[in-house]
Amino acid sequence: MTGVTDEPVPGPGGVCPPLRTGQDAHVLLGHGAGGRLSAELLDSLVLPALGVPAGGPMEDAATLPTADSLVMTTDGFVVSPLVFPGGDIGDLAVHGTINDLAMRGAEPLALTVALIVEEGLPMGELATVLASLGAAAHAAGVPVIAGDTKVVGRGQADRLFITTTGVGRRIPGLAPSAAAAGSGDAVLLSGPIGAHGTAVLSTRERLGFVTDIVSDTRPLHRLVRLLSPLGDRVHALRDPTRGGLAAALNEIARDSRVQVEIDEASLPVPDQVAAACGLLGLDPLQVANEGCLVAFVAADAADEALRLMRSLPEGADAVRVGRVTEGPPGRVVLNTLVGALRIVDLPLGEQLPRIC
What we know:
single chain; 8 helices; globular; five-stranded mixed beta sheet
C-alpha cells in the first residue's frame, strides 16, 4: 500500500505488531497513549512536520531557546468522565501542567488555559470544573494569566476539553533530563501507583470500586523543590502518567541508553488497586498516575532523597524500587517475586483511553 509502513518494529522485548503510517492509514486511540504508537506518530509525522530532529530525548518540558532558565510545556486534557473520585478535569489540568514543569526541575510561574466546550454542557458542570481549576491553581501558588474559550456544536466534541500551557523557571542546581540517568543510579518512586487510572475507569464503567480507590492527582513542584540541595545528583525525573511506570522507565532507559532493573517486591501497589487490576486484566505498571514521580539519583544520594521526599505528604510513601544495572541500553527488567527477570516493555497502545 503506497505510503504505508507495514514492517514489524523491534523493541526491547521483541517484535511488535506492524505500525501503520501514511496517507492511507488512520489515527488510532493508541496513538495518544504515550506508548510505542505515540512515539511512532511523533517520529514519522509530527516532528518532521515541525522541523524537529527525531531521536533526541523526549522531555516533559523544554527550555526556551533564548533563556535557558525558563521552561515551557503544553498539554491537552480529554479525560472521561469529567469528574472522578479524587478530582476532575479542572484540577487535573493544573496539576498535570505543573508536574511537567517540575520534572525538568522548574518552579512554575504561570499558566494559560484554553477551553473547548460542547454545546449542551450544563452550565453548572462547567462552573464546577472551572472552580476546581481555579482552586487548584491558587493552592499551588501559580496564577492563570491568559486563556481562550471556544464552543462547538453538539456531537463535535465530547463535553469539555482543556488545553494548558505552563511557564516555569529552573530551580538553581537542578537540571534533570530523561537522557541523564547513569550507571549505578538508584530508582526512587514518590508514592503508590495505579490509583488514578483505576479510579477513572471505575467511574466511567460503573464498576463499583469508587468507594475504595481515588485518583492521586496533585502537584509535585514542592517535592521537586525540596530535592534541590542534591543538585546534579538528581539525574532524571518523570511523572508516570499515560502508559504508567512502565512507559516512564522505558523512556528514560531509551533516552539515557541504560538498563533499568526494578524489584516487584518493592513496588507500592495498593491492595485495592492490585485487586481491581487483577479483576480487569490490567497491569498496574501500565496504569496512569497523576500524583507521583520516579527519580533517578546518584546512589550516594538515594537515602537523603528519600528522607527529603518523605518529609512532605506527597512523598510520605517514597520508596526505592530499583537501580540502573549493566545490560542492553534501553531495556527495563522486573525482578519478580519468584526471582526471575521479566522484560517490562513500552506499552504499544493504551489499556485505558481518555484517562487524562
